[in-house]
Amino acid sequence: MLKRLTIENYALIKSLDIEFPDGLIIITGETGAGKSILLGAISLLLGGKSKSSVFMDDTKNCIVEAEFDDDRILRRVISPSGRSRAFYNDEPVKISYLSELSSKFIDIHEQHQHLKLSDELFRLSVLDKFAQDDKELHDFRNKFEKHNFLLSELKKLEEKIRKSESEKDFKTFQYQNLVEAKLELEEVEKLEAEQTQLANAENIKLRIEESINSINPFEHSIVQQIKDAITPLEKEAEHLPALQSIIDRLDSCKYELDDIDAELNKLSDSISVSPQRLEEVDNRLSTIYTLEKKHNVTSVEELIEIRDALASELETSDISNEKLESLKKEVSNAMSDMREASVRLSKKRHDIAPIFSSKLQEIIRSLEMPYATFRIDITDKQNLTVNGQDTVDFKFSANGSYNLNSISNVASGGELSRIMLSLKSLMAGLTYMPTMIFDEIDTGVSGKIADKMGNLIGNMAENMQIFAITHLPQIASKAGAHYLVYKEMDDNNIAHTYIKKLNQEEREREVARMLSGAKLTDAALVNAKELMKNY
Predict the structure, then answer these.
(1) Domain carrying residue 464
(2) Which segment, 69-73, 106-110, 152-156, 279-283, is predicted with the most confidence on average?
(3) Which end of the chain is more exposed for a tag (fewer CB within 10 A), N or C?
């Protein structure tokens, strides 16, 4: 329950620090006194949006803090720059977390909330809470999400396969071209060297032969001439030992020239003047160059990488088709599981709907609508949504069952207020909500009806903390604590909103004011005491 509320620098509230008891808490005040301001401040703790108008003094922070039982403290701080911060037990939290957390502590029924009865999702959520079908709803939603996820994956895979199939023929053609090319690493370098040699074969062979002929002239070869130079020197070497080194050097030249001669002849024999082979090399290089240009690369290594990648893609295409069939089965199974879960959820709703209708109808009839008829209609909307297969409609008639129609079409404002209060009363015990605020739920009713509504609110307050912001004396007179919201001008003619707890005498005068209006009369005081004497 809400034990204490502190507000600083919010609208017309400069500073407020007030404690609240358990049970029923009546809040009254003249129109414009600031009851809505108080509610607005509390709404900030529920994650409500802040506005620039929240500041009484736009040089200071606006602070709203609420202390609940079990020492839980929520705080919202809004700076003049518009920055908003939230705290739970002095630890900073996100606004969304504050909203989620506070929604477990307090529920605000604001004016015109009865219009929610026209909202199909609201009606469905109310039925689910009464049915206590959290397990079935959670199970269905898990299966719903699983099915949607698998269906999404299936659609992605089908699109991938569709694109792959449209490109498959072209990729197969590219792959076959690269396979047929029989590409080898470093092949281009070898072919280019061979191409250069073949293109110049005749000249190369001619030049080698010229060199051979120079080493071996027609009359005497250079090798023979060296032999001839050695012979006379050998005859005198014993007389002049220095000649031996020259003989050795000439002998070395002879052997080197012999070797060069042999090498040149071997090279000459190896060189083939073959226009046919040159054409073959040219064609092979042209094939490779064309492939490189086609695939926008500059090496055989890159072409081989593309070939291998294409092979992998074509192989993956076959695997994808196998996966497609498997995924289709998964989607089908998930659909079956989801529909079964939806049927279980729908059955629980159908089973509880008559009980819910009967209990709510009983409460509604207690609020001066003795012939009211209420019924829940559940229809199958065919297409499953996150909430299942059901559409829920609240049917109502104030005058018996013969004129049942959708509640928003046949109920007046006062009737809707009573129906909504009845609904809140019925659901209060199921939601375990410690605190509930009714903001003029009595709109459109008066007299005996208001008294009955007050009794119903009082009964709810026996099990939870109830704030009732009201303009009706029949409700304000009910047993519980009574707080007055009022407005006063300070010395600078600036309005300030205050709230205070009333004692018995002050309560009587406030109820009398509500009875008589602007002028407080003795008769109104007597009536007020009469209203309050039973509480």
Answers:
(1) 1-105+433-502
(2) 152-156
(3) C
